[in-house]
Amino acid sequence: DWTMATYRDTKVAEIREQVGDKKVICGLSGGVDSSVAAILIHEAIGDQLTCVFVDHGLLRLDERAQVETMFRDHYNIPLVVVDAEERFMVGLDGVSDPEKKRKFIGGEFINVFEEEAAKIGGADFLAQGTLYPDVIESVSFTGGPSVTIKSHHNVGGLPERMNMKLVEPLRELFKDEVRDLGRELGLPDMFVGRHPFPGPGLAIRIPGEVNKERCDILRKADAIYLEEIRNAGLYDAIWQAFAVLLPVKTVGVMGDARTYDSVCGLRAVTSTDGMTADVYPFDASFLTQCATRIVNEVQGINRVVYDYTSKPPGTIEWE
Ligand code: XMP
């Protein structure tokens, strides 16, 4: 793709110009955007770049291992993995307001990045995989007055005190363009096609209070749902699919015993840029199969519902 080949060359030159001989910390989320940003920046400045992957305890099942493998085995890019589950869980304790969750998580990411920067003798720049829709949606909603719908952690939520400057080489791009650029940079198709995953992770898929126990329950349900989607050959037809764990308990029956457990919501949408989205129309039998497996296999969930809301008026994530 000549467009992306040109974009690549232009950005590499711009990054070199912006960064000079200074050091850059890149926050990796494991998603396509931050990976593409990291590879592009690495191409521009080599070992002036350090990538930091924060395991905030809000990741999906096996995600950390996948990202570690990918970066260590396929790219020769130094990767620091920070085990930060405890401090994120402590900070989220008692927080149920969606914007407060997002602000805390965004701020704590910066704290971790600054600590890691200090360890390598300081860094002048923080790199992120911010895309054009992230910029727009954090500022205003399609043309209306300036109303913040959500503070995307990689745009808003950056504390004023942060003393690193931002490097955001994907700020003009939409998701499909980032995927093209990823292919241009040699990222494997399987990785380029990954569904988006938000920086605040499972915290915004657990309305109400977040804790490790609830994250563990959600991780299991989410993994089953995605396994079913992959097995049915539907993964690539869907923009994003995930489970949410609701702060509501309902009554059920297992064998001859009464249960009183949480409700799990399933979401799947099609979209081209995340700014609008349509509900993915699964067959009823597919959803029944997912519900049966989740209730049978995940302790703590006894009821599964499917989210039929388009965006707008819904958003893709529940918070
Ligand atoms: P919403 O929920 O606003 O999501 O319809 C649109 C797209 O953005 C993703 N998303 C985020 N990505 N940091 C991110 O990197 C965030 O804070 C964030 N919040 C939402 C969401 O998963 C969807 O793809």
TrEMBL record:
<keyword id="KW-0332">GMP biosynthesis</keyword>
<keyword id="KW-0315">Glutamine amidotransferase</keyword>
<comment type="subunit">
    <text>Homodimer.</text>
</comment>
<dbReference type="GO" id="GO:0003921">
    <property type="term" value="F:GMP synthase activity"/>
</dbReference>
<keyword id="KW-0547">Nucleotide-binding</keyword>
<dbReference type="GO" id="GO:0005524">
    <property type="term" value="F:ATP binding"/>
</dbReference>
<protein>
    <recommendedName>
        <fullName>GMP synthase [glutamine-hydrolyzing]</fullName>
        <ecNumber>6.3.5.2</ecNumber>
    </recommendedName>
</protein>
<feature type="domain" description="GMPS ATP-PPase">
    <location>
        <begin position="2"/>
        <end position="194"/>
    </location>
</feature>
<comment type="function">
    <text>Catalyzes the synthesis of GMP from XMP.</text>
</comment>
<keyword id="KW-0658">Purine biosynthesis</keyword>
<comment type="pathway">
    <text>Purine metabolism; GMP biosynthesis; GMP from XMP (L-Gln route): step 1/1.</text>
</comment>
<feature type="binding site">
    <location>
        <begin position="29"/>
        <end position="35"/>
    </location>
    <ligand>
        <name>ATP</name>
    </ligand>
</feature>
<keyword id="KW-0436">Ligase</keyword>
<dbReference type="GO" id="GO:0005829">
    <property type="term" value="C:cytosol"/>
</dbReference>
<keyword id="KW-0067">ATP-binding</keyword>
